[in-house]
Amino acid sequence: MPLEHYSIQELSSTDLTSDLLKHFNRYQEVRRCLRQENGEWVLKDIAFTEQWVEALKEEIVRVDLMNCILAGGIVWGVYDSGNQMIAFASLLQGLFGSSKDYLQLMQIHVSFEHRNKGLGKKLFERCADKARVMGARKLYISAHSSEESQLFYARIGCVDAVEINKKLAEYEPYDRQMEYALYS
């Protein structure tokens, strides 16, 4: 489906219904992941399947997305022609880092059936544009270590974070802490 057949909307708290992600398919068959060895990122054969059960989808809406909006952050949803949410991204409010340069791109996900169509890139661009308006110089991403996720971030221009957010790194120890410069 071409990009013009999707609509991207900024969500409000009233949009965050318990069934918002009912048709969202997080499925990802991971075969290789990046791991740090001696200061270098190395691809390792680490296989597992990512899949969200309904209870987790409801929790993501009720906790992650709602808290993001209530704290002044932004959540975008991408809807297909049947008005089903098939992708979303969330940008947290609150600059951090030694120079208050960073805003966190908390989540960015595209439903399995809709990947590789440019939706993730469009959502990322929306987050970057809004982060500039909110005063950030960089986006901070605690990025899934799967090969596919890392390729996505690398293609967009993300690099290893100069400053590591210890809380995020400890919460997701296998994630790669990355940043995206909003100004060149």
Task: Describe the protein.
The chain has 184 residues and is an alpha+beta fold. It has one domain (7-181): Aminopeptidase (3-Layer(aba) Sandwich). Helices cover 26% and strands 33% of the residues. The protein has helices spanning 54-70, 119-133, 147-156, 166-171, and strands at residues 7-10, 28-37, 40-50, 74-79, 85-91, 102-110, 138-143, 159-160, 176-181. A hairpin with a 2-residue loop joins strand 2 (28-37) and strand 3 (40-50). The model has no long low-confidence stretch (mean pLDDT 97). This is GNAT family N-acetyltransferase.
Strands, total number: 9
* CATH architecture field: 3-Layer(aba) Sandwich
CATH topological fold name? Aminopeptidase
**What is the terminal-to-terminal distance?**
33 Å
- Discrete helix count: 4
Radius of gyration: 16 Å
Structural classification:
alpha+beta
Largest beta sheet: strand ordering: 1-4-5-6-7-9-8
Q: Which residues form runs of ≥5 with pLDDT under 50?
A: none
Biggest β-sheet description: 7 strands, mixed
Order of helices and strands: EEEHEEEHEHEHE
Quote the beta fraction.
25-35%
What percentage of residues falls in helices of 4 or more residues?
A: 25-40%
**What is the CATH class name?**
Alpha Beta
